[in-house]
Amino acid sequence: MDAMIESGIQWLGKYPASWKLKKIKYCLQERIEKNNPVQTSDILSLTAKQGVIPHDQKEGGGNKPKEDLSGYRLAYPGDIVMNSMNILSGSVGLSKYFGCVSPVYYMLRPLRNNEDVRFYNYIFQTTIFQRSLFGLGNGILMKESNNGKLNTIRMRIPMDKFGGLYIPVAPIETQRRISDYLDIQCEKIEALIANIQQQVEVLESYKKTVITECVTKGLNQSVDYKETNIQWIGKMPNHWKCVRGKYILKYIQKTTREDDGVITCFRDGEVTLRSNRREDGFTMADKEIGYQGIDVGDLVVHGMDGFAGAIGISDSRGKASPVLNVLDTEQNKRYIMYYLRSMAYSDVFLAMSTGIRVRSCDLRWNKLSELFYPVPPVDEQNRIVEHIDSVLCKVDAVITAKREQLETLDEYKKTMIYEYVTGKKEVPADA
């Protein structure tokens, strides 16, 4: 193995003596090529999880692109695409596409054509390099959670500062060997990750199926059923009633208290104080017009995100925007919650919505009150809720274990990349 020398750079440590230590600006050049006149309408997006992809493949949809694309920049295959605002959270990747990107993105290519762009991209993929950029940015808004993960980062890294950073540069043939080896190893890890992620998706789908079946068909499959003529309910047990929401639910508005914290209803169904999850990434209102009080145990339906599952029982006392519908009922609240979630899972709210915006739809009390709800006797509701809670608890435990596996694999991949692109490990001779 090559002799190692001290770099004097905290994130790098020692590196091979046969390598060079160079400033990024002497290795990579920025491409600044505007899409004016418009050469392409193919918009590219960049995420830490998916890399550089066509915008319509972005998970969750993302922000709506501008209609005028002339202010966008062009990205080419082989460009390292970097989000100047989010590189700290991993928004950097190697493009396989020709398209246009937001002006906040940087496009970088090697100054010398015979160098391997993959090698530089791998350096930028390492968490330890990304974290080393703390202090370089303008306009920091970030929060590190207890497990070390970063929430939303809005921290612009100026190119002049970025270009002045030193990185280890391997000889060209070594760059290729490292990049070829990492391509193969990362592909294997990504295949494992994709397999586990698919298992998680199957389990999440199973949870939704259990909820929908139980709240519309009950637990006893041997009872007689009757037709409701309501598409999302279908047949239900004969002894159940089908009732409009206004007859079993009550829309309530409570006063706020001086010490109330802000409550948010999240898309995973948790209703809790915003401070319990994260503070960053939210816009705080200057005037809390129409804010309402929420107590522990209140049933909450998000008026804009309910279609995506933002329906739950509050675990906290606090205040919330009027966009949240706070409901009371003499029925089992968790049963009603599960039924409303089942409608969200079946896209019923989207189908009945008017005025759909991107990633949201209007779901107010006037609609919730007119919906039909299958209503079993309360004691049966209680048994249904106990069964659902029990099943979900077991499935969630499996999902948690699998997500921990995903985190472990992702961390292993980044650690492996770091060790090879800094020369702390050599590519095996038989690789």
Helix content range: 25-40%
**Structural class assignment:** alpha+beta
What is the overall pLDDT average? 89
CATH fourth-tier homologous superfamily of the largest domain: DNA methylase specificity domains
Q: How many separate structural domains? A: 3
CATH architect. name of the largest domain: Alpha-Beta Complex
Radius of gyration: 26 Å
First and last CA, distance: 16 Å
- CATH topology of the largest domain: the name is Adenine-n6-DNA-methyltransferase TaqI, Chain A, domain 2
3D shape: elongated
The major beta sheet can be summarized as:
4 strands, antiparallel
Residue windows where pLDDT falls under 50 for at least 5 positions? 279-286, 355-359
Provide a count of the helices: 8
Number of strands: 24
Question: Strand order across the biggest sheet?
Answer: 4-11-8-9
Strand content: 15-25%
CATH class annotation of the largest domain: Alpha Beta
GO molecular function: DNA binding; endonuclease activity
Organism: Absicoccus porci
Protein name: Restriction endonuclease subunit S
GO biological process, one term: DNA restriction-modification system
